[in-house]
Structure prediction request, 108 residues.
Amino acid sequence: MRNFELEIINFIDQGYNAKRYYLFGDKKELRLTTNIRDDLNLVYEDCVELMEEYFERWAVDPNGFEILDYFNPEYLGSKERDPHIPLTIEMLIESAKAGRWLYGSKQF
Prediction:
């Protein structure tokens, strides 16, 4: 049986959990409740990359997932609303187990 929790935490830790001072320092401790955007300080483009790779690697059907529900592109003069809907590691794990995205925007 696959250990989705370990696989997904390792995926995020290795690719998206930067060291505190770029090349040195501690990484943040990842928990099920870790908010991918806010706790890891990811920019929009990194979030898009993370989610695209996640959906492909774990064969999760992305139907119902809308990136703008969780992240907004931040650019000079942007007037996009900040959704501030948390996207947690636990959400990725549970959706991977189900094989489809479980958290449509209508649930918020």
Residues 44-57 form the longest helix (14 residues). The radius of gyration is 14 Å. The mean pLDDT is 86.
